[in-house]
Fold:
Amino acid sequence: MRLNELQASRGKDGVTTIDAMRQELAALAPESLEILDESGQHAGHAGARDGGGHYQLLIVSGAFSGQSLQARHRMVYAALGSLMHKQIHALAIKAYTPDEI
Structure:
């Protein structure tokens, strides 16, 4: 586990936002998944003050085959569901198929 994952905020149930993201993104059956918490770089920002974090996501999944970039992002947003409205304020997404790596 990376240091940034250890520093990730914990929700009321004790689960970090990164852990919750991993759980939700499992629906896309990722072959590879990396999440970087950049929230500390945005201290004082309106979204950070409200509790939402800033994250970078790199995900590789066969589910993205034949999908446009926009469709892949919509799939990620759909998988993350309500996390996008509360725990996640900003998300930079890099979504690839296994063949693209």
